[in-house]
Amino acid sequence: DADVTQTPRNRITKTGKRIMLECSQTKGHDxxxxxxxxxxxxLRLIYYSFDVKDINKGEISDGYSVSxxxxxxxxxxxxxxxxxxxxxxxxxxxxxxxxxxxxxxxxAGSRLTVL
Amino acid sequence: SQQGEEDPQAxxxxxxxxxxxxxxxxxxxxxxxxxxxxxxxxxxxxxxxRSNEREKHSGRLRVTLDTxxxxxxxxxxxxxxxxxxxxxxxxxxxxxxxxRFGAGTRLTVKP
Lengths: 115, 111
Known about the structure:
The complex is a heterodimer of chains A (about 120) and B (about 110).
Chain A: E1 4-7, E2 10-13, E3 19-25, E4 31-38, E5 42-51, E6 54-57, E7 65-70, E8 73-78, E9 87-94, E10 105-106, E11 110-114
Parallel strand pairs in A: 2-11
Antiparallel strand pairs in A: 1-3, 3-8, 4-5, 4-9, 5-6, 7-8, 9-10, 9-11
Chain B: E1 5-7, E2 10-14, E3 19-24, E4 31-37, E5 43-50, E6 55-58, E7 61-66, E8 71-76, E9 85-92, E10 99-101, E11 105-110
Parallel strand pairs in B: 2-11
Antiparallel strand pairs in B: 1-3, 3-8, 4-5, 4-9, 6-7, 7-8, 9-10, 9-11
């Protein structure tokens, strides 16, 4: 099994629908992140969480919300999806650990299309 | 806004040649990392270089960091077709709060 698992891998939905993307990890890492990838724009941070009671906005949090249900689970919700939220979404985890740096482990991605 | 910007946006070389990608960033950093992404898949960490380091090696990878110019380069020596992927630099500030990624360099290695 993958260290970081994202579901669903692909989703097509309509404008106005509520969508949840889920992420679970077996790395035992405290830190979890949601990124969005658009062609030519690289990855942009949506939300991040350093533990179950900690939620922080990233650079593009508008239109998104998150829930950290447990150390291993971090879900991303689009309350009312719009077409410009069509993108590839990545969950990632990290642990400062012995390196003192955030080295990210990524999931395989969730491709979302909003019609 | 993105922190890092990679250059070139795309690079095409023949197998066996060396590939060099550059990254520039805007603010002070704690460390800089390079990641690789195969088409449509998750990113994989390649190498990390700290702000007090100037060069690091890992296998066929060589990374340099010039903090005075706020730039880094990734060199892949003796490239292989399997190196075909997108390469991203990511910077981490001293608050260790988040990583900021550039838009990536798309590398194509022709057999």
